[in-house]
Design brief:
This protein is mostly helical. The protein has helices at residues 2-15, 21-34, 40-51, 57-100, 104-133, 146-163, 168-185.
Length: 186
């Protein structure tokens, strides 16, 4: 039963999310936490791992969750579930592209989806940020916590580097090095 549940859950995630892995994140969080497959803190940790490993984020996280819940067959079922909707949609789009490329309905649909995708990505950033920073108690003592300042500093430095168009791989590697060094020093 877990295999069908994994497939259907990730099929729904793949079918109802536009804009890639980050836009999928709120739905992935809701589904995976609601089903008790991962804790919120585990999702945050896995996001870091998924972003530093090759492959699309949605495939990485679906494979991981499937593997945790049902071994190799679970990983296969959840990965197929998240991939299949996109595969079907792109086949349909390719087949009918010429007929609909100048359609006002399709143009309007795409115009409506763009802000929704940005909103979903923003919601994911806030949710992850809340989880990352929730380990710090809200009080004046937060300003004396070195882990807080390392986290804030890393976010600021990596944000500046991303804005300056430093390659994402370099940013990921630098973040990892900062985390390792801070882990040993703090």
């Amino acid at each position: 039963m877990i295999f069908l549940d994994l497939f259907l859950t990730f099929f729904k995630i793949g079918a109802f999310t536009f804009g890639g892995g980050y836009a999928m994140l709120p739905l992935i969080q809701d589904e995976v936490i609601a089903k008790g497959w991962l804790l919120e803190s585990e999702i945050v940790n896995f996001i870091a791992v998924a972003e530093s490993t090759p492959g699309p984020f949605a495939i990485n996280i679906s494979t991981y969750v499937g593997s945790e819940m049902g071994g190799i067959l679970g990983a296969f079922c959840s990965t197929m579930g998240v991939v299949l909707p996109s595969f079907i949609i792109i086949l349909l789009v390719a087949h009918w592209y010429e007929q609909f490329k100048s359609s006002k309905i399709v143009s309007g649909l795409m115009s409506g989806l763009k802000p929704a995708v940005i909103g979903l990505i923003g919601a994911a950033v806030l949710s992850i940020g809340k989880t990352v920073f929730s380990s710090f108690e809200i009080s004046m003592e937060i300003f004396t916590n070195p882990e807080f300042w390392v986290s804030v500093g890393t976010v600021i430095v990596m944000g500046i580097l991303a804005f300056k168009k430093v390659h994402p791989i370099a940013i990921i590697c630098m973040s990892a090095v900062i985390g390792i060094v801070a882990g040993y020093l703090i």
